[in-house]
Amino acid sequence: MADTPVRVVVVRKGKVKPTEFRLRAGEVGLSLFHAPDVVSCDAILAAVRAAGKQGELGLAEIPMSVFHELSLRLVRTPGGTPDPVVNALHLEARPSRWRRLLLWVRRRPVHEWFNEQITPHLAVVAKLIE
């Protein structure tokens, strides 16, 4: 898992649903974390739980190559957890500026495009870390 981005997801019946990779209205990127080691994984889950995410939480690993194939940029952003160490690991997968400009010209929200075009791919390749 050497520096592979991970997404905190709710695990239902041992599976992760595609809805875990969707953006909400107004969002421009999918929240992820760099998880360089197992200690960070436990800390990420604890911090996200402390920030209010409920349910049986797990981490879904997404290969770096997928982001390149989908033309998504990984951008460091401030995390929203109470743990500054975990917040330093936070990043977002975002469409390029060029893609966002095209979407803006076409008056199409980023989250709609992302949910239709990107979410299905991420849901297929994401692997739950056991």
Describe, in plain words, how this protein is organized in 3D.
- This protein is an alpha+beta fold.
- The chain has one domain (5-128).
- Helices cover 36% and strands 22% of the residues.
- It is built from 6 helices and 6 strands, in the order ββαβαβαβαααβ.
- The chain has helices spanning 38-50, 64-69, 84-87, 97-105, 110-117, 119-125, and strands at residues 5-10, 30-34, 57-61, 72-76, 90-95, 127-128.
- Strands 4-5-2-1-3-6 form a 6-stranded antiparallel sheet.
- The longest helix is centred in the middle third of the chain and has 13 residues, at 38-50.
- The chain is globular.
- The model has no long low-confidence stretch (mean pLDDT 93).
Features:
globular, 36% helix, 130 residues, 6 strands, alpha+beta, single chain, 6-stranded antiparallel β-sheet
